[in-house]
Amino acid sequence: MLEPSHNDELPTIPGKRYFTIGEVSELCLVKPHVLRYWEQEFPQLSPVKRRGNRRYYQRQDVLMIRQIRGLLYDEGFTIGGARQRLSGEAAQDDSTQYKQLIRQTIAELEEVLLVLRA
User: Fold this and answer.
1) FRET partner for 6 with CA separation of 20 to 30 A, picked from 51, 100, 105, 115?
2) Cα dist from 52 to 17, 24, 89, whole Å
């Protein structure tokens, strides 16, 4: 799982409903070809595909990608190990995603508060 310290080094997720693969690549610090590969390896990742087979990711997809990134890059899991970890802890994953979403919302609200105080 992503620890709060790992969350700080990743950019803030904007308040949008859909993200392109390029935007997700920047938000998660992962190249687009890696995201396409992860879609094949992790059944939890299923972005909406529109005209021309373009991928549109939702906020929960971005959070899942960040979690996968944390498992692979920060905790040293293999693809198989990360897949097993994610599938074995489905209920815990939901709470982890909610915690990440809450942390993200708090960070965004603090930014708004700073702007309002200025």
Assistant:
1) 115
2) 20, 18, 34
* Separation between Cα atoms, residue 9 and residue 100, nearest integer Å: 13
What is the Cα–Cα distance from 46 to 20, expressed in whole angstroms? 13
Q: Rounded CA gap, 54 and 20, in Å?
A: 8
pTM over 0.85: no
* Confidence at 2, pLDDT banded by 50, 70, 90: very low
Phi, psi of 106 (to 5 degrees): -60, -45
Tokens of 64: 């899942």
Question: What are 19's two structure tokens?
Answer: 């993200």
pLDDT in tens, 25-81: 999 999 999 999 999 999 889 899 888 889 999 999 999 999 999 999 999 999 998
Give the residue among 49, 51, 63 at the shortest CA–CA distance from 7.
63
